[in-house]
Amino acid sequence: MIFGGIDAGSRAIKAVLWDLKRGEVLASGVCDQGVRQEALAHDLFQKLLDDAGIGADDVERTVATGYGRNLIGFADATITEITCHARGVRHLAPEARTVIDIGGQDSKVIRLSAKGMVQDFAMNDRCAAGTGRFLEVVSARLGVEAGELGDLASRSISPAPISSMCVVFAETEIVGLLASGAPPEDIVAGVQHSIAQRVAGMAGRNVEEPVLFTGGVALVSGMAAALEAVFKKPVRVAANPQFTGALGAALLAASHS
Amino acid sequence: MKDSPARITLEEWDARYAELRVAGLREPWYGGPLRRHVDEGGDYRLLRLRYDNSAAALRLWNFLLTEEDRLKEARRQGKKLVGAMKDLGTVPVMAYSLANVTAFYPDGAWWIPCVMELSSRDLEIADSLGIDESFCPVRAMLGAFLTEAHFPIPDLLTCNVGATCDDFSAIAQRLNGLGFPILWWETPHRRQPDSAAGEESVPLPGGLIAPREQVDFVRSELERVRGAIEEVAGGRLDDAALRDGIRVANRMRRVLAELRQLAYSAPVCPIPALEMLIAEMLALHFCSDREEAIRVLEELLEEARRRVGEGVGPLRKDAVRVFWVNPVADLRAMNILEDCGGRVCGTEYLFSHALDPIPEDVAPMEALARTALADPMVGPCSDRADRICRDIQLFGAEAVLVSRIPGASHCAVEGAVIHETVRKRLGLPVQEIEVPPLCDAVAPTIRTRIEALIEIVKGRRKP
Amino acid sequence: MSSVLYTCPFVPAEWILAHGLSPQRFLPSPSRDGDVFAGVGEGICPFARAAVETACTEPGAAALVATTTCDQMRRAAEFAEAYGRLPVFLMHVPSSWESAGAHRYYRGELKRLGRFLEEVGGRVPSSEDLAAAMEDLDAARGALLDARPGMTSSQFAGAVAEFHRGGVLPAGLPAKGNEVGSGVPLALVGSPFFEGHLEVFDLIERLGGRVALDATTSGEGSWPRPFSRRRLREDPFDELADAYFGSIPDAFRRPNSLLYQWLKRELQTRGIRGIIFRRYVWCDTWHAEAQRMKEWCGMPMLILEPEDDARLRARGISRIEAFMEVLR
């Protein structure tokens, strides 16, 4: 039996087909988000079906999650991304007790019980500081790819303090730092530190280990290290971190079927 | 006629009103169809809300939305108007003890931008005075005073300061700076008595205590308020009158206590969250008519009793029981909770001291001083968190929703303390939302948080 | 001598000194790694946060005294007490000041503070101890003011900060003499400083101005009036309370008319030609005064939101540069 999960995030749509019998992901894919969300999600989903060599009728049930979940009309149900991420993490790393999810335009910290159930969560989905958007800004300003940020940051001796609460003004601050001769590695390290601090502010006290890092930003090198430095705890990056929510949605589709 | 409890839209209320009329609905002078408040009053937000469909709820809404008329009528009749700011429940008890005095909270203007969907432009006026959106929405009060469009300028303005919130204090100071005289009276930060120093411990409503020195100080401050009321009213506000005033206030508080107990603990929620929020707000200053406020609440209580007896209500039987902390600037937020499958089971709207009975076994001014010192804002966040935990257990809530008031100076820290305390002591999930005066743009954000909270609780309910 | 840290001008240094402890009115340094406010998101004043975090990591600190002149500090003190690992005393300074009751309450709070100071290692003060401390610090404040004309505004600001921190006059103060400062006379009004913010004085001087009036919560505007010698001898405690509670102009007071009366006088007396108004993000008290003061003062006024990390940022510098161009 095949189940579908769609995570319609604010920057990207992710989808997963889950094969319950074999207990594995049959296909997964991602596309940029856009105005015609349902059409984009539908096209992505169709591509997965084609890749897997199956038809829409072969999918037993589909759950949509994420910011745009209510716009995915062809989904059978919607569940929030908090619950879906938790379910995905329970599958990938059942021992995890804290999930840090940083996406393109939001971030969340989810506390899990020993059984992998959500106990508590905190979200930032109103402010770009503390999200992947901030990294995009610094990448663009420095003219480097996101994949190079980690290497750059690792060379930093003295991360530049970034004080602006707003990413727009932080960009101005970065320009000022460059003009004053601050090394790019210090700027990158400063931005990553700033994001990590914002997430830590959300997380509060008593962050329980193991800590798992999910979301697209987990793919950006250096971010896990920045989180470790702030949380003073090991932070593990999930396998295929961008798909945790979609995977969780598919697993929940299976369990609700 | 469909009498099953339900939450209905304004359009549905048009039909419902006609049905009730045919069935013989008897209304007070301020009664009528809800829609008239949109058409005549510009209260456009009513078009987007969902309401309880009972006659008692209709009366409640009409009572709330005609307060401006009552204040104007009071002025026309020659009554003296006292605008009490910030204390939320004490000064009006004093003022209403005199027959020729009416009291109200200009603070209530904070709902005007919501109810009128910003068409009143009060927030723009506040902006022009340098009081922008980083302040609490109560800044709308500045616009209300300058335009005089919502209430007559009171004969006496009092403002509670000291251990209150900075933004309200600053807004009131701005008002004062614009030429509105204010009688400032102080409440100190409530602290524990120092028994080692021989400080007498005085019991306050709500199970709190404070040192005798603090109670005496607040009493002396309230004596200044009493003197000012007497001067404006042209008559004595003696202890006998105050005792009567306290008794009437307590009568209302008892009705409200029973209503809260029913609404928040019944297996099926009898009265939706929005009507309960308004009902609780009546405790502050009786919506400018003390006796009528009690009658309105009594009718709502009767409806609640009937529904509880029949085991019916407007919400699902399995609605998740949520304890709500802090009042909301946009009434729609209360609807959103219920749309997502929740129900309010307990509240702490920052005026628990207006809900607890005022002591009647001590001298009236002593009683009022103790009540004022029991204000949740006046003490440490931990006291507030303690009370919230007790009430959560009393009402059987399964989760807590903390509604941050945009710009309010206390919210950043209080939310964290409440969250930590509830988590440690009760192990319940806590979520924060921020509700601006119009929450439509952030409704998806609010919904996601509430839905996730509901999902957590439902997950915990499974064996 | 154990030190007692505080930032609020309504905490009398003399009272702490009379208890045999060292009063340290400090400028916070921005802390990035403090954990006192873990879990508190947006909305807390950066000064309140930094003040608590600085105090909680200060070596040799016996206690922190916070006051209710600011709701943010009132709340921050609760966190400091719970998570800060330092004894904290929260003193209620009445916002209202026009009633005898408010004055009495302030006196009561001073006495309660005294009991706390004894608990953290202070001695029971005698009237003579207090009178001596009052004379010393009053004389020191007078000496600083006398020395001011011979100092640049940044030198004076540094001397004031050093005096606040140690309770003694800095060494090498110039003798009373002629005005050395030139440049357009400005007033600084508003929120207190972080440690590194004093560089704004240097910047203003480099740009052709001088701070002729520091009416921030860190400056000489936050000092009590000179003590009455007679009352100091007769009843030092009473005189201390009167001077502190009765004379310090501040935006938090209700009404805050004293601040405007005092400012009007000082702006005129010192020939001020422009105001730089400072307020932190999330500081409602000063924020609410910005527009009002701009409308009231009748002169150019620049509103700054200082950064919370003690460094003057490019946009702050640009604003001050533009402002000085207007004034020159």
Protein model, in words:
The complex is a heterotrimer of chains A (about 260), B (about 475) and C (about 325). Chain A has about 260 residues and is of the alpha/beta class. Chain A folds into two domains: about 1-90 and about 245-255, 2-Layer Sandwich (Nucleotidyltransferase, domain 5); about 95-235, ATPase, nucleotide binding domain (Nucleotidyltransferase, domain 5), CATH 3.30.420. Chain A is about 40% helix and about 25% strand. Chain A is built from eight helices and ten strands. In chain A, the strands form two sheets. A five-stranded mixed sheet of chain A has the order 3-2-1-4-5. The termini of chain A are close together. In chain B, helix 9 links the parallel strand 5 (about 155-160) and strand 6 (about 185). Chain B has about 475 residues and is an alpha/beta fold. Chain B has a four-stranded parallel sheet with strand order 4-3-5-6. Chain B has a four-stranded parallel sheet with strand order 10-9-11-12, sandwiched between helices. In chain B, strands 1-2 form a two-stranded antiparallel ribbon. With about 325 residues, chain C is α/β, with parallel strands linked by helices. Chain C is globular, with a radius of gyration of 19 Å. In chain C, helix 2 runs parallel beside helix 3 and helix 4 (about 100-120) crosses helix 9 (about 235-245). Chain C has one domain: Rossmann fold. In chain C, helix 3 links the parallel strand 3 (about 60-65) and strand 4.
CATH architecture of the largest domain in chain A: 2-Layer Sandwich
Largest sheet of chain C: 4 strands, parallel
Helix and strand succession of chain A? EEEHEEHEEEHHHHEHEH
Provide the CATH superfamily of the largest domain in chain A.
Answer: ATPase, nucleotide binding domain
Strand residue content of chain A: 15-25%
CATH fold node name of chain C:
Rossmann fold
